[in-house]
């Protein structure tokens, strides 16, 4: 099986998604030395996909590893940048979580909390497919943009 076939089997077909494009851009921005230049977008984001078997094999409780925390931060950074593209308001992510994998992520635009997400089982952070990853990012982005549209003065303060 080729790498492309393996990635398709893991995550399904690669959807045309503004969120996935933004997430790829965020991840590629971290590669200052060009180590990932030859990777395709699905290869670059492959660790965001967790199959049911992989999730089942993980312990119920566990400490998040630095790579998982990095992916979580990139996921929300991409949401923040997409919010800015769609609303014109910069949305900054802030997180606080324990070594046990519980916590909270907020995105703030001006004086407005545009997204507040309780986190649990961070060590299991991932999505069943590319479509689920795209759907989650786009839904959180749309909800945040709707909040900005409801309270534009606070978001632009």
Automatic annotation (TrEMBL):
Pfam families: DUF269 (PF03270). It comes from Rhodobacter ferrooxidans. It comes from the Bacteria. InterPro entries: NifX-assoc_nitrogen_fix (IPR004952). This is Nitrogen fixation protein.
